[in-house]
Amino acid sequence: MSVTIDLPDDISAVLNEQWDDVPRRSLEAIAVEAYRTGALNESQIRRLLGFETRFEVHALLKEHQVPLQYSVADLETDLSAHRELGLLSSVIVEGR
After folding, report:
1. C-alpha to C-alpha distance for 51 and 60, rounded to whole angstroms
2. Residue 1 lies in a domain
3. For the ranges 21-30, 48-57, 64-73, 80-89, which has the lowest average pLDDT?
4. Model pTM?
């Protein structure tokens, strides 16, 4: 899908003075709002913006003060991956 935004000349001029890349900033604004509302997930945002890592997504969200949506299932997946890579022992002692 292609999206076109028509801006009045005076607003376009102001945005072009303030931002180095208005189309990119517009796309990032859409991505941030879509993540904030739950319309898109982290992986989709990464693909949409062409980011190499999820940490780039995290940085963008932090810049816009949008908290990460990180569930217990996400934590369990990450812990399992760490165990498989040998980065974490399979036993975690609670309270330590």
Report:
1. 10
2. no
3. 80-89
4. 0.73
